[in-house]
Structures are given as structure tokens and as C-alpha cells.
Amino acid sequence: MKKYFLLLLVFTTVSFDSQKPDAYDSGEWFKFRIHYGFVNAGFATLEVKEALKGKKKIFHAVGKGYTVGMSRFFFKVDDNYESYFDKETNKPFQFVRKIDEGGYTKNQEGFFNQDVNRVLVKDYKNKTEKTISVTENVQDIVSTFYFLRNHPNIDKLKVGESIVVDMFFDDEVFKFKLKFIGRENLKTKFGTAATMMFRPIVQSGRVFKEEESLTLWISDDENKIPLRIKASLAVGSIKADLESYKGLKNPFMVKLK
Q1: Residue 40 and residue 104: Cα distance in Å, rounded?
Q2: Which of 244, 234, 238 is CA-nearest to residue 9?
Q3: CA distance 103 to 101
Q4: So what's the pLDDT on residue 12?
Q5: Buried b (16+ CB within 10 A) or exposed e, 138-164
Q6: Distance from C-alpha of 9 to C-alpha of 217, rounded to nearest angstrom
Q7: N or C: which end of the chain has fewer CB within 10 A?
Q8: Contact 1, 75 (CB under 8 A)
Q9: Pseudo-torsion of CA 180, 182, 188, 191, nearest 10°?
Q10: How far is Cα 103 from Cα 203, in angstroms, rounded to an integer?
Q11: Which of 39, 89, 12, 10 is CA-nearest to residue 236?
Q12: Of 43, 154, 141, which Cα lies nearest the Cα of 97?
């Protein structure tokens, strides 16, 4: 639980072909219940809104995470991640990262210039600015989650196939390797849902116990809803389950019995 539990919601990423969003639209909202071991540790929300860039309508996605109860007493978390990205290409224009994780704080904004593959990062905590070169079509941490759900080949993956993606985070471009590990019927509070299971290869050691410590269950329907995330951390384990939702673009294909 100690860090990055919002990151657990967005590590499933894929390649960057242009596409028109079909899996979601503005008004969609998710709430996840976070468990650290047997403890109800906190909640995380993800919401997509509409914004304007000049006269152009774009998406504004907001992810928030926070601890509750005794977990907040021992380790306070208040995280806010935002992304402004193009409705057609999913390319990000701007990201916001404002977090407080047990006293570890960051307050940053990033402004992408996709034409020249650079991002201007403004660090309000340290009162610094720097321009960083990035790879072509790079995504930020929140925009990758929404891009994944619309990828034209996500339903065509075979078990064991992997895809590598570039994602900008902590002033660097990271390559994540995503492996599709199969399909499973998952029991949720909403009923039994057909799901696709993914296992991103993450860096072991500081946060995660092993490279394949993280598993994600995504609804196998047109929405591609994140239903469950489980991870073995360097200390303990964490699980996030979808608690509530609204504003889905497509019917949630779930069996009530």
C-alpha cells in the first residue's frame, strides 16, 4: 500500500495507433475499494470529463486515491493524477500529478509538444522547470489507461503474447511489457463477469515483490472495465475491486446469477 496504488490501475498499456474512442465517453466514473491484506485501506476513483483546448473538445481524466480509517492514521495518502488528451488520437496535451504519500509529496504539471517529442515539466514544489525529450506518441500514466480500452487489437491477443509501450512518468520514459494470460469468469459484487487477464512486467524490488507480481482483470465486453487488480508488494499484498460505477457508454455484460 505504501506507494503508487493509483499506478496499479493504469499499468495495463499497449501500442499507440490512432483510434476513435468507443469504450468510454465523458461522464464515466469508477470507484475502487483498496485492501491491503485484510485491511480496508482506502479508495480510488477514475473519472473522464470533457474540456476545451482552444475551441477543440478534448478529454480530461482525473484519478484520485486516498486512505481511510486506521490506514490513514498510519500512512496518509492523498493522490491526484490528471490527464488532458485528444479524443481521436489519445495523445496527451497535459498531465497533473499532485500527491502526498506518507509525507512524500510531488506537485507537477507536464505540457506535451507531440510535434517535437518533448514535454515541459513544471515542478511547483521545487520551483523548477525542465524540458525533456520523449519518444514519439508517448502517453502519460492516466491517458494510457484510456488508450488501452480502445486498442483495436486488444480482443485479438493470444495467451502469452506481449506488447511493449512507452509511458512518461517521473521525468522518464518507461517501457512496460504487457502479457495477456487468459480469460476467466470473475465473481464481483455486480454478478459474474467474463474477463480478460493481464500481467504487466514491472520493476521488482522497491514496490513490487517480483516482476510478475501484478495481475489485472478487465471486463471482456465493449467497455473494458477494470474489475480487479491484485499485487504482491515488497511488504504485504494489495487488492483493488470495483466498488461502484456510472456513465458507462456500453452495457455492462454481467450475469446476475
Answers
A1: 22
A2: 238
A3: 5
A4: 37
A5: bbbbbbbbbbbbbbeebeebeeeeebe
A6: 10
A7: C
A8: yes
A9: 130
A10: 23
A11: 39
A12: 141
Q: Report pLDDT digits (tens) over 199-230.
A: 877 544 434 344 556 899 999 999 999 999 99
pLDDT reported for residue 176:
73
Q: What is the pLDDT of residue 188?
A: 96
Residue 229 C-alpha cell reads as 487488480
The whole-number mean pLDDT for each consecutive block of 10 residues of the chain, a chain of 257 residues, reads: 47 39 91 88 96 96 92 86 95 96 93 96 97 94 88 88 84 85 96 93 46 83 95 76 97 82
Strand segments (E) across 86-160: 92-101, 104-113, 118-123, 128-133, 139-140
pLDDT of residue 252: 94
Name residue, grid cell 480496508. Answer: 40
Number of neighbouring beta carbons within 10 Å of residue 59: 22
pLDDT of residue 211: 52
Give the separation between CA 116 and CA 13, rounded to whole angstroms.
Answer: 23
Instruction: Quote the Cα angle for 162-167-171, to 5°.
Output: 145
Instruction: For the chain, report the end-to-end CA distance as a whole number of angstroms.
Output: 33
**DSSP H or E run through 63:** strand 56-67
The candidate with the shortest Cα–Cα distance to 166, out of 194, 132, 191, is: 132
Rg, C-alpha atoms of the chain: 17
Residues 43, 34: Cα–Cα separation, whole Å = 5
